[in-house]
Design goal:
- The protein is an alpha+beta fold and 123 residues long.
- Strands 2-1-8-7-4-3 form a 6-stranded mixed β-sheet, covered by helices on one side. Strands 5-6 form a two-stranded antiparallel sheet.
- Strand 1 and strand 2 form a beta hairpin.
Length: 123
Amino acid sequence: MNHEQLMRDYYRTYNSEDRAALRAFYAEDVVLLSAQGELRGPEAILGTYDYLTSQFLDQMTPTHIAVDGDTAVVAITDRFTAKVDVPDFMGVALKQGESLELSLRGTYTIADGKFRRILIEAV
């Protein structure tokens, strides 16, 4: 599978809220770096995913995918729609049904068809 297709499959899976299917994308030693800090291993990443999907319909849309060797850089529109009232999410209070949209850039290092390193940055 080429890396661009891998990225498209990843975002489709992420948006489906299928935790088990999502886990298959992560190497055992995966590291995710974001403004919230560093997560190591699939279960740590999925723990954050569980929290997000319990609070929000979290829909990530890749708007541009650039692949160079084993690295994919993805421009992402991430729309969080509150499933419940959320008093504080990144400094914003959201009532049930309200949305927050972020523009992000994800840089993914891929080995053997799995993510080894993920860097998520606001743009």
